[in-house]
Specification:
The chain is an alpha/beta fold and about 325 residues long. The chain is built from eleven helices and 13 strands. The chain is about 40% helix and about 20% strand.
Length: about 325
């Protein structure tokens, strides 16, 4: 490490609309952050170039070179191939079989580690956020879609194919709505922000749904989950029912995981989770109702605390832990 200063790590949160990167020290304290638009329509090379630009900008601001970073972590939608550092399929980026870690490592000369975005957010919340100290934790993000990550026995759990933790694609209703993954009745098709908006558009043109349409000023295409939540808070019965049903599905799915894994904590984040008590009270009630009593007593359901920083912080943390594991000669 040059200049005799603290070791540095860089985390990059690659999303369909923005790239958020963070420079952190060895204690995972954020030094600085930068966010730029992803613009995936310009193609993978342009996006990777913007990622590199954020990394170079962050280090240069503080008098460092990229080479001063010990490692770089990237959180990205999946599925991914961890061994090759390739994004296999990311619809919101319009990517299939795109090598990400390799080009970044070649340009920066630093080790680069790629992991699912929900997994690195789970790691961040467990190490630095609301889930600190939990041994068996699930992180769930409820926004446009539903993602999740698992910490089991204190370690990030990725499974045989590196794709564990897809709570959003657990089947909840055999003949339910078509999900973006091609299956029917996935949790994501019933409880995500997209699902809430879709159901509200259906209800808005029926008797009883007039309040939702009025909130949208007559424009059905303006109905999104935020508008539905606002209408529910204002007392609209139809909007409140839509939210309640969505969160009951979420609670049932989480209760299933509690029964399966005997978790001690569930951390919920994402844009939809900002509605607050209506979500958390519903999920807690369903976990208590549908989990074994001995398990329900042990698990806490709490809001995420790191907000938009979770992805980049988690990616940096993942890079630090992967590098340390390799330096010890241990398996990942």
């Amino acid at each position: 490490m040059g200049r005799g200063r603290t070791p540095l790590f860089i985390g990059v949160d690659l999303g369909g609309t923005k790239i958020a990167s963070a420079l952190v020290d060895a204690d995972m304290r954020m030094i600085d952050r930068v966010t730029v638009a992803t613009m995936p329509g310009e193609g993978p090379d342009a996006v990777i170039g913007r990622m590199l630009g954020t990394v170079q900008d962050l280090t240069a601001r503080h008098g460092y070179d990229v080479g001063d970073a010990r490692a770089i972590g990237i959180g990205c939608p999946g599925p991914l191939d961890h061994k090759t550092g390739m994004v296999l399929d990311a619809p919101n980026l319009m990517w299939k079989d795109v090598s990400v870690a390799g080009p970044m490592a070649e340009i920066t000369g630093r080790p680069v580690y790629l992991e699912n975005d929900a997994n690195v957010a789970a790691l961040a919340e467990n190490r630095m956020g609301a889930g600190r100290g939990a041994r068996h934790m699930m992180y769930v993000t409820v926004s446009t879609g539903i993602g999740s990550g698992l910490i089991l026995d204190g370690k990030l759990h990725v499974g045989a194919a590196g794709a564990a933790g897809e709570l959003g694609h657990v089947t909840m209703l055999a003949d339910g709505p078509l999900c973006g993954c091609g299956n029917r009745g996935c949790l994501e098709s019933l409880a995500s922000g997209t699902a809430i908006a879709r159901r509200a558009r259906e209800i808005a043109v029926r008797p009883g749904g007039e309040g939702i349409l009025k909130a949208a000023r007559g424009d059905i295409n303006a109905i999104d989950a935020r508008l539905v939540a606002s209408a529910a808070t204002a007392g609209d019965a139809a909007a409140a029912a839509i939210m309640r049903v969505a969160f009951e599905y979420l609670g049932i799915a989480i209760a299933n995981v509690v029964n399966l894994l005997n978790l001690d904590m569930v951390v919920i984040g994402g844009g939809v989770a900002r509605v607050g008590n209506v979500l958390f009270d519903t999920v807690r009630r369903l976990v208590e109702l549908r989990s074994f009593a001995c398990m329900a007593r042990e698990v806490r359901v709490v809001p995420a605390s790191l907000g938009a920083d979770a992805g980049a912080l988690g990616a940096a943390c993942y890079a630090a832990e992967r590098l340390a594991s390799e330096e010890r000669g241990a398996g990942c």
